[in-house]
Amino acid sequence: MLRRIFMFSNPIRNKLIRAVGGNSSAFEKNSVTKEEKLTEVLKQALPGITYVSIQDISGGCGAMFEISIEAKEFRGLTRVKQHRLVTDSLKTEIAEMHGIRIHTNPTTEDV
Prior knowledge:
The chain is an alpha+beta fold and 111 residues long. It has a domain at 32-106: BolA-like (GMP Synthetase, Chain A, domain 3), CATH 3.30.300.90. It has 5 helices and 3 strands; from the N terminus they run H-H-H-E-E-H-H-E. It has helices spanning 2-21, 26-30, 34-45, 79-89, 91-94, and strands at 49-56, 64-71, 99-106. It has a 3-stranded mixed sheet, with helices on one face. The radius of gyration is 15 Å and the shape is globular. Residues 16-22 and 24-29 have low confidence and may be disordered.
C-alpha cells in the first residue's frame, strides 16, 4: 500500500520540483542524475524488477541514498540475501557513497 502512495505522489512531487526549480541549463536537462544511473544499473543486474524508487537523502550532495526495490529475483531469499543482491549490483557506485538504506520485497504478482 505504501508503494502505491509513493507511485501516485511522484507526478505531483515532480511538478512541484519543476515549478520551484524554474529554468535549468541545457547541461542539467541532458545530464543523467545519480538516481537515474543507479536505477539503470539495478535494472540491468536484476531484470525482474517490478518497482524501484531511489531517493537522495543526503540533502542533494549524493552521499546517501534510500533504495526501495521489488523484484522477482528476491523470491525465496532471506532479507540479507536480497540486500546482498542489491549491494553486489551497485558495488562500484556504493564505493562513492557515505551510506545507503535498502528496502526490498519479492514480487507478489506474476508479471
